[in-house]
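Re: beginner question about structure tokens

> Can someone show what the tokenized structure looks like for a real chain? I only ever see the sequence side.

Sure, here's an example I had lying around. Input first:
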Amino acid sequence: MAERKLKEEQEIAEQRRQDEIAERRRQDEIAERKRKDEMEFELQKIRLETEGRSLNSNSVANQNVNSTQIKPKLEIHHLMQKFNSDENDISLYLIMFERLAKQAEILAFASLTAI
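And the corresponding structure tokens:
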């Protein structure tokens, strides 16, 4: 009788532990999904901002066909948020940086100082 009760208590404790593990995994997955969604949102926001700036500079350049075209000086640190290792993924951050540098036509050696 006592052995059966002990066994049942162990099974209940094991089931609770399994439930806690499953709940923790579920919460981690939700947090990761939320973090990725936020990063995608920020990336899309940056794309739209740079696209808008590109369109503005193109319309100004088209108006000044006879004059010399001057590329706008964009400083990439104004376009990107600072890297936070607690919240951001370094690979995604560097991909975003490379894309912005390419869109802003920043030379490779000049982009190193922008990081």
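Each token stands for a local structural state, so reading them left to right follows the chain. The chain has two domains: 1-56, 72-114.
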